[in-house]
């Protein structure tokens, strides 16, 4: 003989299972993963916005500097080529979960930062540019953007650090494995600082000017 459970009992049983599952997921960090994942995405978007702002300033800076007679063509070429490489990288949501793609993005942006640093150093040797109000305005905008890049990047580093701790520690690491929450790559600040460091520049009046770089 079979017995059918009352519909009311089945409903209560199903509700109890759902509550138990929700409590289990919450206790294992599932909800926290959701929150921290969204935070890293928001922080990453701000990093991209500031890098794009810098890239948008460069054509005006280059055009202004070109108006200075005898300005080092090699320096301008390096900036233009570095910008082209940086903006050519296709950034997708998957970039945050691909350490190699993230490293290529970081290297390209670091090289562009280094090329811009050299450009600003070289302009110090040109009094007309230093007195050019349009160039000085662009320089202020660039320096402000670099500061915003640093702030945005540091916020991203902090967001990723919180996320990665959750992804690695027990028992939330089990939740990460089940639901595919992989550890995210982050900026290596020391390495990027080394990439961005401009080469030593001599302003010795007797030195011969550098030959223009060949187009790639």
Write the layout of secondary structure elements.
Blueprint: H1 7-27, H2 30-66, H3 73-88, H4 99-123, H5 127-130, H6 133-168, H7 172-179, H8 189-196
Helix pairs in contact: 2-3, 2-6, 3-4, 4-8
Question: Can you describe what's shown?
Answer:
This protein is mainly α and 216 residues long. It has a single domain, classed as de novo design (two linked rop proteins), CATH 1.20.1440.20. The protein has helices at residues 7-27, 30-66, 73-88, 99-123, 127-130, 133-168, 172-179, 189-196. The longest helix is centred in the N-terminal third of the chain and has 37 residues, at 30-66. The chain is elongated. Mean pLDDT is 79; it is low at 13-26 and 193-216.
Q: Helix tally?
A: 8
Q: What number of structural domains do the residues give?
A: 1
**What are the segments in which pLDDT stays under 50 over at least 5 consecutive residues?**
13-26, 193-216
Task: Using the 3D structure, state the CATH architecture.
Answer: Up-down Bundle
**Mean pLDDT level:** 79
How much helix is in the residues? over 70%
The topology string of helices and strands comes to: HHHHHHHH
Biggest pleated-sheet summary: none
What is the name of the CATH topology?
A: de novo design (two linked rop proteins)
Q: Which structural category do the helix and sheet elements fall into?
A: mainly alpha
Rg over CA atoms, rounded to whole Å, is 26 Å
- Class, according to the CATH hierarchy? Mainly Alpha
Distance N to C terminus: 85 Å
- Coarse shape: elongated
Q: Write the CATH homologous superfamily.
A: LemA-like domain
How many extended strands?
0
- Give the percentage of residues in beta strands: under 5%
């Amino acid at each position: 003989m079979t017995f059918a459970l009352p519909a009311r009992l089945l409903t209560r049983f199903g509700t109890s299972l759902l509550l138990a599952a929700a409590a289990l997921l919450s206790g294992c960090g599932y909800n926290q993963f959701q929150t921290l994942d969204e935070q890293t995405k928001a922080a990453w978007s701000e990093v991209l916005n500031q890098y794009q702002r810098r890239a948008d300033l460069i054509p005006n800076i280059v055009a202004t500097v070109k108006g200075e007679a005898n300005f080092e063509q090699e320096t301008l070429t390096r900036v233009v080529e570095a910008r082209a490489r940086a903006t050519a990288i296709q950034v997708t949501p998957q970039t945050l979960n691909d350490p190699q793609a993230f490293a290529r993005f970081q290297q390209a942006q670091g090289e562009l930062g280094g090329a811009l640093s050299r450009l600003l150093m070289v302009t110090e040797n040109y009094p007309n540019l230093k007195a050019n109000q349009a160039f000085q305005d662009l320089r202020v905008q660039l320096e402000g953007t670099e500061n915003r890049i640093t702030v945005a990047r540091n916020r991203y580093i902090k967001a990723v650090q919180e996320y990665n701790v959750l992804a690695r520690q027990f028992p939330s690491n089990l939740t990460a494995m089940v639901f595919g929450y992989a550890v995210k790559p982050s900026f290596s600040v020391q390495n990027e600082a080394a990439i961005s460091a401009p080469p030593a520049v001599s302003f010795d009046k007797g030195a011969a000017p550098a030959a223009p770089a060949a187009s790639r």
